[in-house]
Amino acid sequence: MSITAADVNKLRQITGAGMMDCKNALTEAAGDFDTAIDLLRKKGQKVAANRGDRDASEGVILAKLTDGGKTGVMIALNCETDFVAKNADFVTVASNILDLAIASKPSSLDDLKALNYTGSEITIGDKIVEEIGKIGEKIELSHYSVVSAEQVYAYNHPGNKLAAVVGFNKPTPDDMAKDVAMQVAAMAPVSVDESSVPEEVKQKEIEIGKEQAINEGKPAEMAEKIALGRLNKFFKESTLLNQDFIKDSKMSVSQYLKTADKDLTVTEFKRCALA
Fold it and tell me: In sequence order, what are the beta bridge partners of 271?
């Protein structure tokens, strides 16, 4: 059967695939659109398999608030090149996935991938495979996180390569909330405070501190005390509330928050950055 330009354009509008890919799929499918769509998806699966070991270090990270500012949701959609990351269609797919995450609040990244993609009967996971076939690059939905609190602030760094979502225990001035979210983005703390640092991280820092002390010639009996001192330094440098506030190093982030309310604090944060 003869494949017309109108047929090719129709399939292209449905799938977003390239013109030649659409023409070849329609030709192989003898003009049957459903079969042609399946062929294009299989092409995406083949490309995905072939590019599975490629480095997808580019992409976009998007964060948005919902529930009247009491919940923040963040996703990262990765690709191989900055050229694709800046493509309007790629950004639209990422934005649609974020909106689906907000609407459905899945409990995990896998559950998010299992949701039906916007306006279609295929899942988000299948949509990503479809995009791989269309674009020819490895694409991966690599991050999904949610923060819920009395007030949440979502910060998207210009360029969509870095984002942070921060939860507060009380209503917080918008400029202050933004300052703290930018602190998280810039300084990459490991936790809110020392009490929320995972035990394995603490033990690792202590062991590193002991080893450094011994290598510096300190007696073994002193190494433990020196290591604990270095652990406290780690807490100051690497936990959000104890870090020096980036806009005024004379106070910590905790002290900065207390200038608005003595009981104001951060309850949780999430940060995501492209490598």
Answer: 164
| pLDDT score for 196 | 93
| Residue 47 identity (one-letter amino acid) | V
State the Cα–Cα distance between residues 270 and 68, nearest whole angstrom: 19
Residues 144 and 68 in one domain: yes
One-letter amino acid of 50: N
Is 106 a domain residue?
A: yes
6: which 2 tokens? 């109108």
Q: Indicate which CATH number applies to the domain containing 104.
A: 3.30.479.20
Closest of 225, 194, 232 to residue 210, by C-alpha: 225
Q: Does residue 49 surpass a pLDDT of 60?
A: no
Question: Which residues are bridge partners to 20 per DSSP?
Answer: none
Q: What is the mean pLDDT of residues 40-44?
A: 65
Integer angstrom CA distances of residue 273 from 40, 62, 75, 156: 32, 10, 11, 10
Q: Assess if residue 11 is contained within a domain.
A: yes
- Total domain count for the chain? 2
Question: Is-contact 35 22, C-beta < 8 A?
Answer: no
Q: Is the pLDDT of residue 66 over 90?
A: yes
Position 101 confidence tier, pLDDT thresholds 50, 70, 90? very high
CB atoms within 10 A of CB 35: 14
Q: Is pLDDT at 29 greater than 80 in this prediction?
A: no
